[in-house]
Amino acid sequence: MRGKRLILISHCVLNQNAVVRDWERAVGAYNDIAMVLLEQDFGIVQLPCPEFSMLGEERPPLTWEEYDVPPYRTHCRELAAEPAKQIQEYVKKGYQIVGLLGIQESPSCDTTRKRGIFMEELLGLLAAASIHLRTFDIPESYRKGQPGDVLEQLRRFCNIITE
After folding, report:
1. Contact at 8 Å (CB) between 103 and 12?
2. What is the pLDDT of residue 133?
């Protein structure tokens, strides 16, 4: 019964409680984003939140430059090692990794612009294993349930044919 199609997602897509206080964009999860993925029977690999695990729930908002320090990079590399290992195993067993869903403008989880520190480390580990993923970022301005074309763009990213 395995569909063998997986997508990696930034932690806060399913848990906005990990986001810097007052920067949340949903009460608990982006359930509209998750539903797009679940409706297509994707397996979802939720990545860890390096900011939360290093600095806790009451951390202040920091910039990319403030996070770009050796202790944080080491922390991100260590956190990224386990999901990178899991993805290598899935690929070895014939699974399709649809892509990686990040958060635009996040100093840790942006995948497309000024790549976040955690994503740099994760994608570097995967590239070393010859695994290259397509990426899609939830726009910084997006709020759960907001009208617009973000969900349609996500469907296209995942090669979902809408009715």
Report:
1. yes
2. 95
